[in-house]
Amino acid sequence: MELVAVERRIWSGSASFVLARTTVGEIGVLPGHEPTLAQLEDTAVVRVDGSDGTSTTLAVHGGFLSITPETVTVLAEYAELADEIDVSRARNALQRADASDPAGAAAAARAHVRLKAAGASE
Fold first, then answer.
1. Can you give the pTM of this predicted structure?
2. Distance (Å, whole) CA 48 – CA 20
């Protein structure tokens, strides 16, 4: 399993389960899954359960999910590991966002997914 953003490789390793939200709904991927190519929602939380029992949560903004029977690859425009998210900054961004403006609504959606991935309340 690999999760790659435009600027860097975010996560790579062996995974037992991947959960992601696509434009057509949530998908859970186990080893041996049928080949699939799906567009991720503009703002989505992705969870990777490693084969070693660890769980990694990420905030992902745009991209694709590519599944083969052997590998899962998430190609994201931008992604952050949950423990890299500055919760205070995300809350401030949410408060500043003007939901009546399309750009503000997009900023609010990004802030929401960052807070969700970090496990923080709004």
1. 0.89
2. 9
Give dist(CA 105, CA 79) in Å, integer: 19
Supply the DSSP string of 18-74, one letter for each residue. Answer: EEEEETTEEEEE-TTPPPEEEEBPSSEEEEEEETTS-EEEEEEEEEEEEE-SS-EEE
Name the residue type at position 40. L
Q: Is 78 left (phi over 0), alpha (psi -120 to 50) or beta?
A: beta
Q: Which amino acid is at 83?
A: D
Compute the average pLDDT of residues 19-35. Answer: 95
Q: Within 10 A of 116 (CB to CB), how many other CB atoms are there? A: 19
Reply yes or no on whether the pLDDT at 17 is more than 80.
yes
Rounded Cα–Cα distance for residues 67 and 99 (Å): 34
Q: How confident is the model at residue 69 (pLDDT cuts 50, 70, 90)?
A: confident
Residue with tokens 């992705």: 46
What does the alpha-carbon distance between residue 92 and residue 71 come to, in Å, rounded to a whole number?
37
Query: For the chain, how are helix, strand and coil distributed in percent, rounded to 5?
Result: 25, 45, 30
Asked if the model's pLDDT at residue 122 lies above 90, the reply is: no
- Please, which residues bridge with residue 58 across strands? 46, 81
